[in-house]
Specification:
Elements: E1 2-9, E2 16-23, H1 31-47, E3 53-55, H2 63-67, E4 74-75, E5 83-84, H3 85-91, E6 93-95, H4 109-114, H5 116-120, E7 124-129, E8 132-134, H6 141-152, H7 155-161, E9 166-168, H8 181-193, H9 197-202, H10 204-212
Parallel strand pairs: 3-9
Antiparallel strand pairs: 1-2, 4-5, 6-7, 7-8
Helix pairs in contact: 6-8
Length: about 230
Amino acid sequence: MATRPVFKPLSAFPFVEEIPVEFTWYPGFAKSQAQKSLQALHSAAKELGISSILEISSRSTDPLGISLSAFNLKVTPKNGPGMSVECAFQGSKVFQYGGPYHDLYKVSSIEAKKDPRIRNSGDLVAFNFLGETFPITPVTAFYDWLYMNALSQNPKISKELLKFEVFSDIAFNPQKSLNCQARAAALFVALDMCGEIEEALRDRKHFISLLTGPSIKQTNNNGGQLKFKL
């Protein structure tokens, strides 16, 4: 047995509910094994009254879920070529002893994820994307922001995403990872539900304030709005 979260959008802070689901796990690296585990996860979720679930990963049985994988979903800066969310995320990491490794923007998603420099450059201290620095707290903020920007640039896909109520990622293990594409998708839907998505993507300061809650004020050293121009 295993326990994994599924992610439900909420119309107010904290915007995403993580619901733990216990299910039968099918070990092995084959895609067929992952899809057996996925089917078991969704079946167990339905027994808890959770329906309308979309798996977001390369293991999804739904083409929409595959296209929404961070390995496949593209984010395109105004003054540069498009890249996968995964490449943008990995290539923007700044470590204690190196980075950002912007050359990873131009490789495949799997190459970016497995680049040895990501593991051998010391502690993660910040992100640098398009020449601007993004802090590592809140811990999932930069990944979520990248993913949601990619969704906003792909309106056909994001429109289909809004039809679902809950999201899963069978490859995500919260004991080993922090960032999750299914959670980022749920956050996008939640902010769309409450009318905050456009301002959140336009103004980084506002986005971080949404994640940290209405009682916490965010400040920055420059005294102005912090924005990325995609």
